[in-house]
Every structure is written in C-alpha cells, then in structure tokens.
Specification:
single chain; 119 residues; alpha+beta; 3 helices
C-alpha cells in the first residue's frame, strides 16, 4: 500500500457528492471489502458508501486528514487519520489496519478509535 492509496482512502471519506463517493469507493475498495471498527461493521461498496455518509452526517463540516503514522509490509498497512475542522485540532483520531487484494484495492479495514469526543 502506498501513501497515494492512503490519500485516495482519505479523499473517499471526504467526498460529499453521492455519485463521486460511490466512484471513489469502487476505486479504493474491492466489491466484497469489509470494514470493522468499534461503531460499525459493513461490507461491500454500498455499505461502505453508507458508512461514510453516516460519518459525514455525525460530523458536518469536518474533514478527514492523514495522521503521522504510516507503515506497510506484504499486503498489509497501518496508518493514523484525523477528523475535525479543517486546519484545527482533530476531534477524532483513528488508527486503521488494511489488507490489500491482489489488484491493489483494499479488501479489509480494521479500524480503531484512539480519540473520540466526550459523550
């Protein structure tokens, strides 16, 4: 997995247009990809697009950005990401571990939330 794929992954999470988001999801994830974090467990392009739309609804106006950590070996990568108002301290910080398919797209995401807003 390259930094370029991380950038495309983050861009998909920031895409607010439904059609463009569906296209971005199809380019980044395999058709049968799974995503699991403490708040969600989804599979497939429709599930991923709905998850992204839901996250955007929970945090309107916030943007995802790459974090400081990136590491990869074989077909596995891990990286951190931030979510918050553009240019400001992140409100949410996460850590994702992804497994790539043979075609270079993401087949599986295991997400962790390191910082979340107080309830």
């Amino acid at each position: 997995m390259s930094n370029e794929l991380v950038e495309r992954y983050i861009a998909a999470w920031n895409e607010t247009d439904a059609d463009a988001r569906a296209k971005a999801v199809a380019e980044v994830w395999t058709e049968d990809a799974t995503y699991t974090d403490p708040l969600a467990e989804v599979s497939g392009h429709a599930g991923l697009a709905a998850l992204i739309e839901g996250a955007q609804g929970m945090f309107p106006g916030f943007v995802f950005s790459p974090g400081e950590v990136y590491d990869a070996h074989h077909d596995i990568a891990r990286f951190t990401w931030h979510l918050g108002p553009a240019g400001e301290e992140p409100v949410v910080v996460g850590f994702d571990v992804v497994q790539l398919a043979a075609d270079g797209r993401i087949a599986r995401v295991l997400g962790f939330l390191d910082k979340v807003p107080a309830a």
